[in-house]
Every structure is written in C-alpha cells, then in structure tokens.
From TrEMBL:
This is DUF262 domain-containing protein. Signal peptide: none annotated. Pfam families: GmrSD_C (PF07510), GmrSD_N (PF03235). It comes from Oryzomonas rubra. InterPro entries: GmrSD_C (IPR011089), GmrSD_N (IPR004919).
C-alpha cells in the first residue's frame, strides 16, 4: 500500500471541494481538549497517524452520496450536511481520518460551539469559540504531567493578554502567511503588539518567534498528512476497509455503518436524515421524553422484518436494506406505537433501563397494525394491561439486558406462533419462553420477590411501584415517589436498624405530585387520619391504625408487605386473574 504526504495547507483547500465525507461516517465527537491536543502533537512533530482516502471512480458516482465536512461543531449534535457533487470531476472520500480532518478544519477555519458560564448567575449558554495559541508559553518545555507542550485553547472572544504570562494568537491567522513570505512580518507585528501592553524580555521574544515559526512550519512546511488513496470501485470492499480502518479510536456505532449501507439503497430519500429525524421524534415529540438512538431503530428493523437478529454489519446485506426500505413506513409506525405505549405506562428516559425490551412490543404491534393500546373497550384495556405488566416485568428482571439476541429470537418465535386473530397479547407464552431461557418471568415468585426488594433511589423504583396501581394515564399525570413514614420521622429516637429500613419498598407509594407536596413531613398517622378509605385501599395501607406510628414501623412493613405481595401475585397471574382476567 503506497502512501503520499502533503502539508496541511495543501489539504485544507480541497476539503468540501474535492474531499468529502462518504455516507460511511460517524458524527464528529471530539472535544475542545482533543482538538487542542492534535495541534500540540503537530507542533511537537509527532505523527498523527495515516489517512485513508477513496478516489470515487466515475462509474460509481451515481451510486454514492457525499457529505460536507463541518466548519462549526458543538458539544452534542454534529450531523454533516449533504454535499452537492453533481458535475464535479474529482471526488475523494475520506474513509479513515474524518475526525482528524474535521478537527484541523475547526481549529484553523471554524468554530466550536461550547458552553460558557455567565458571570455572577451561574447560567450556562452556548457560544461560538475559535482556537488560539499562547505565544508566551515555551512549548519546548512540556507541562509537569507531560501531556501537552504547546498551549492551545478555545475562546469566544479575542483574549490577547489574559494575564502577564499569556498572549493568545488566533490560530487561523497562520493561513494568511504564504510560503516563504510574510512570516517574519507576522512575528514582528506580534512582538510589537505584546510590547504595546507589557514589557517583553529578549527571552520572551525568542519564545514568541519560536512558537510562530513552529506553528507556521507545522501547517505550511511539514508533510503532516500521510495518506493512501484507494481506487477500487467495489462498495463491499470499501466497507470492509472502512470497518477495519476504524476499529480503533472513538468507537464507530453499528448504526453508522447500517445507515451508510441503507443510504445506497434508499432511493430518492436520504436514509440518514430519515432515521435521524425519526429518532428526534421518538425522543422529543411524544408524551414523555425518551433517550433512544439509531442503534435501537436499526436493530428493531432487523427483528420486526424477520431478518437475522444478530446486530452485525454482515446482517445488513443489499437484500435486507431493500426490505427495510420497502417496509419502513410500517416499521416506523410499529416502533412509534410501542414507544408511545411505553410512555403511557410511565416508562421514559429515566425508567427505560433496556431499550431492547421495547422490541418485542414493537414486533407485536407490527403484527397487528390496527390494534390500539390506548383504546377504551374492556378488551383493549385488558390487553394494554397485559402488555404493560409484561414490559415492566421484563425491565425489572433484566430479561433483555446484556446479550439479548437469543432471547429476542425466542420471543419473536413465540409471537409468530401465537399470533391470534383477536390480537390478544400472548403474555403466558412469552413468560414461559423467558422462564425456559433461565431468566425470571413475570409469573414467578422470584419476580414478586425482586419487586419487593426494590428500594428508594434505584432506577427501577418508579416502575416497580407503578405495578401496584391500575392508573392508565402515567404519561400525562405527574407522580412522585412518597415515603409513607416521612424521612423526618427517622431522625430522632429511632434505632439504627429501623433507620436502615426507611427506603424499604414497604414504605413507598406513588402519589400525584400535588398531593405529595401537601403531605410533606407530616407524621403518617396524622396524614392518614385525613384520608378516605379509598385512599387506604389504593395504597395498600394496613387497616390497623396502631401501626401508623413510627414506634411500630417494623410491624407496619411486615403487614404492608403481605398486602403488596398479594397484589403483585394478582397482577402477575395469567390464569384468569390479574392480567388474564
């Protein structure tokens, strides 16, 4: 494999004119610190690894889409825009080195949209920052930690003389200096500018000259960009090269590769934009906020369309991509309905501990496109209850956590076999498959025990408590986790072993947020005296009022646990009780 080497100044003008990002790409993820470290490496004459380019053959240009490198990036979302390449003679895709080239572009010609603390108020706002080099810091002597020698930093203003020891030079200005001309003039002007605001020793002037000369050489003289240009027209081979080249560094998500392949077979629409917009809709446009990603959507496509469950690049063949494109509208609706149902059950970004648990529900809804989980008929309400109990139990018992491909495959088989004309959710059969796989099913005593062992502060606490109630509007009514015996009650004259039981499941309930604010730290016996019998039944409060005092807290827990266990056994039952009724 032959390599060529060129300067950064030679390469930069070709970015977004000849050099583009392919559909095979990841979003830019580097931080300001990483960008500064790259330039420090250049100044120290460290190699910054080789680059891999693909010179797109003329006959392949109608089959590819190009994206522009970003000049301005931010801390979170950095999606490349589609480039207009029609009529261009030379198109080269950057396969390996996308992050590094973007970092060079941002550092020398662009901005980094970061966060800045407003003085006095602590409020945070986004500001566009440019990169600067500290001319007074002698980079020939590394920092104590040995991590950096030359000081680069991003600022949203021209910092110049921040203190007596630093003088900042805007990095992009080095591009205005041509080969063998203008450097000395730049050095002289910077030294004069510093002397206008402070004294400058001859040693400090030498540091300024060294830094600017070194910076100039790293951009204009050093052949810092070493690259190999691949010319093979075979897309599959290019994909394999790309995967191998990107096996290190910031991890490339499988969804990036799938989206890259999908884009080639998506037709007139842009697959990347379609999927990204759908993820945004799932996360921000439903009744609750969610934290789903492209990987979830892509894996759901494989499962819902009866493709191989294993989430590997090899699963995304041309045939699979064509199937996904053909069925996208239906798959999209099934996923949307599954997430919407989960939100209605009170499951959102804070409580969805395994996104894979949603996939069997989405598969079930894909099988029954006209089925409603928000319907009002008795059958619809009961069926929604089955789905809710199964989904929450799957989350509480980590049925689809970790390596879940085999479990997803088994559950898909069950849904295929027990697809009923009535649309009834086969909860008993799904629980049986879970149990046979050696995992805790909702119908087992272990499932009940797992719920009762849940304590305040666990990310599953809200979901576990929600099983106690028949509420159907979790998505629209705000609920809070309440300590029945308030935490204040455990601060005085209470044994240590009793204090340790404060966050026990038996001392917790879900109440409407406004109601919780009204209760505050009132003693339980006083609060319950103002409540109705219906309230006591709803929250499974022992009827014996003598147990409502902190002195009998342990007995209260014992009696309430019995009530809670009976309730959970009823909820989890499938033999014409609970969800089977």
């Amino acid at each position: 494999m032959s390599y060529q080497s060129e300067t950064i100044a030679d390469i930069l003008p070709r970015i977004n004119t000849t050099y583009f990002l392919p559909a095979l790409q990841r979003e830019f993820v580097w931080t300001e610190v990483q960008i500064c470290a790259l330039f420090d490496s250049l100044m120290r004459r460290y190699p910054i690894s080789s680059f891999l380019f693909w010179q797109v053959p003329m006959e392949s240009r109608d089959d590819v889409e190009a994206y522009e490198f970003l000049h301005s990036v931010n801390e979170s979302r950095n999606r490349a825009a589609l480039a207009r390449i029609h009529g261009r003679r030379d198109i080269t895709f950057v396969l390996d080195g996308q992050q590094r080239l973007t970092a060079l572009l941002v550092g020398l010609q662009g901005t980094y949209l970061g966060r800045k603390t407003k003085s006095g108020k602590g409020a945070r706002t986004s500001v566009a920052k440019k990169m600067f080099l500290d001319l007074l810091h002698d980079g020939r002597f590394p920092d104590a930690e040995g991590e950096t020698s030359y000081h680069f930093g991003f600022f949203d203003y021209t910092p110049t003389l921040i203190n007596q020891n630093s003088y900042w030079f805007e990095a992009g200005r080095i591009l205005n200096v041509g080969i063998d001309s203008g450097l000395q003039d730049l050095i002289d002007r910077q030294i004069k500018s510093i002397r206008d605001v402070r004294k400058l020793t001859s040693q400090e002037a030498s540091v300024v000259e060294h830094n600017l000369t070194h910076f100039y050489e790293s951009i204009w003289v050093d052949d810092a960009i070493s690259y190999h240009a691949e010319t093979d027209p075979d897309h599959e081979r290019i994909l394999e090269i790309f995967v191998r080249a990107n096996s290190g560094g910031t991890k490339l998500s499988k969804s990036d590769l799938l989206l890259s392949t999908l884009t080639l077979h998506w037709g007139s629409e842009n697959a990347r934009e379609v999927i990204n917009e759908f993820v945004d809709e799932l996360n921000n446009k439903l009744t609750r906020k969610n934290r789903l990603n492209k990987d979830f959507v892509m894996k759901s496509c494989l499962v819902l369309l009866d493709q191989p469950v294993a989430y590997r690049v090899s699963s995304f063949t041309k045939g699979t991509c064509t199937i996904i494109r053909s069925w996208w509208d239906e798959v999209r609706q099934a996923i949307m309905r599954a997430v919407d149902a989960a939100n209605a059950f009170g499951i959102d970004e804070d409580t969805l501990t395994s996104v894979n648990a949603l996939i069997p529900v989405a598969y079930y809804l894909h099988q029954h496109p006209n089925l409603r989980l928000r319907g009002e008929s008795a059958a619809e309400v009961l069926n929604a209850k089955r789905v809710r109990v199964w989904l929450i139990s799957a989350l509480l018992n980590h049925v689809l956590g970790g390596s879940s491909d085999s479990m997803l495959h088994k559950l898909r088989e069950v849904l295929q076999i027990y697809r009923r004309p009535s649309g009834e959710f086969p909860i008993a059969e799904l629980n049986k498959a879970v149990s046979e796989a050696g995992r805790t099913a909702a119908s087992s005593d272990n499932a009940v025990d797992n719920v009762l062992r849940t304590t305040y502060g666990k990310d599953t606490c809200f979901l576990a408590l929600s099983l106690l109630y028949d509420e159907r509007n979790w998505g629209t009514i705000n609920h809070s986790i309440d300590h029945l015996f308030p935490r204040e009650a455990f601060k005085k004259n209470v044994a240590d072993h009793v204090k340790e039981l404060r966050d026990n499941f038996g001392n917790l309930a879900l109440v409407i947020s406004d109601e919780n604010s009204g209760k505050k730290d009132r003693p339980l016996n006083e609060w319950l005296a103002t409540r109705s019998q219906e309230y006591l039944k709803r929250h499974f409060i022992p009827a014996d009022q003598s147990l409502w005092h902190i002195e009998r807290f342990e007995e209260f827990l014992f009696e309430r646990h019995k009530l809670l266990r009976a309730r959970l056994q009823y909820v989890f039952s499938t033999d014409n009780k609970g969800v089977g009724e």
